[in-house]
Structures are given as C-alpha cells and as structure tokens.
Fold this protein.
Amino acid sequence: DVKVTQSSRYLVKRTGEKVFLECVQDMDHENMFWYRQDPGLGLRLIYFSYDVKMKEKGDIPEGYSVSREKKERFSLILESASTNQTSMYLCASSLLGTSGINEQFFGPGTRLTVL
Amino acid sequence: AQSVTQLDSQVPVFEEAPVELRCNYSSSVSVYLFWYVQYPNQGLQLLLKYLSGSTLVKGINGFEAEFNKSQTSFHLRKPSVHISDTAEYFCAVSNTGTASKLTFGTGTRLQVTL
C-alpha cells in the first residue's frame, strides 16, 4: 500500500515563527501536492511538484514556499506564520502516468494552530 | 478554469436509507471526476473515479456515481447507508495536461443516525 506520512498530526506555533511541514511518500511517485483544508472551503491547492527541484504554484501560494530536494520528500514552509494560516494541511502524492491522471494518495494531515 | 459545486454542506440520513450527494462541475474541456471520502481525523481516500467509458461508476463500500455530461453532474449514491458511512465527502475534477491537479468541491458532511 502507498503510504504518505506527515511529520506531525498537531502543531502549535507563534505568529512570526518559521514553520516546516514535512511529507514523505514511499511509492516513488513523481507528483506531490500540498493542500490546506478549511471548513466550508474544501481543499485548496497551495503548491505542487512533478519532479525533484520542480515546483508550481497552486491556487493559494501566498505566504508559503516549498522544497523538494528528494523525490520522496516534499516540504511546506511558512516563512513567517500568521494567525490566518491556522488550518489543516494535507499532503498528497500520485504517479505521473501516461494519461496524466492518477489517483492522489493523502497523508493524515497536520492541524496547525498559529497563536 | 474548472470548478466544482457541492450544494449540500450537510446531509442527515437514517441508517439503511438511500442517499444521494450532489456534485456539479464546470469546465470548458473534457474532465475526469472523482469522489473522495474523509473519515474523522484521517486523510482523504478515493471512493471512485470516472475517466471514460461507462457513465455509471462503482466504487468501494457500495457507493456508485453517474456521470451526466449534459447536466454536468456526477452525483454519488448509495442504496442503504450504515453508521460507518458518516464522513465528509469531496467531489473533485481534473483534466489532462495539468499533472493530475485536482479541483475540489467544498465537501458534504454525511451524518448517518439510527
């Protein structure tokens, strides 16, 4: 089974701190994604990566950056955390595939609270 | 650009009753459609997907969905729900050439009671 793990289930940080959220997948997937999930808004794509050192902005990249130095690991960085970044963060991965459309596998999520 | 609308934010239903969760999409090109489920305190899990072929798609846990191109809909159905189906359900859309990017709806909370 594909496994996507996230470094923390719950995280509490203070305004202005630099925050790292880590995601690791064990199935050699090319694509990796970071979403945030908020009540009433569903999942919104922050950034995605289709290869090592490659990244593209999603729908809400402001205030975030990402790093993908190894194929299995995709990090989300909040350079200076703010209270409006309090949210559930979900990581996902998928194969690139010939059709370009493949199932995304999700991690359990990190609930980040910024005080 | 594509979008997904899930009009029902919450659907309460009694156990063993049928349920339909509605999903409508908007896109200028051909789409692929997905339903994901999120159980409490867990990540999302794929229920079913429509890529091409038969418009009636069967998924896990007895769920099925029907792709209706003329109505731009992809409603999820189950003939008899169980308490364990209580979860949040997300409809999502994707198209080719976008590295499997998904656009999600806002979700429907299915609450099954005795």
About this structure: Chain B has no helices and twelve strands. The CA atoms of residues 3 and 56 of chain B lie 21 Å apart.
